[in-house]
Amino acid sequence: MINTKLINLGIILISIFLIIKMSFVILIPKGDTTVFLGLKLNPIKENIVYQYDKVEDGTYPVLYSDENQLIGDSFYRTIFAIPLIIYVITFILLFFLKFRLKRTR
Description:
105 residues, alpha+beta, four-stranded mixed sheet, 4 strands
């Protein structure tokens, strides 16, 4: 049988992934090797912005920057590659399983 601790862990992980997906953006400026991790205020906007123009610096508050590649870049890109609807559906299913298990006990 599915353990409630596993379901709770899944809910926590999906919540963290949702927060990352909905609030962070990778900014890659044109003609520069520096890569920025920024905060996006609109959760539906794109997560990776190529050809980022430094003139629009006020658009995304920059949290972190690094030459060539961010620390954890592949982790962020993996989270960003999965569509938002998959996270939402998984979150809802885990909550459904959690309450279903509570009812049967």
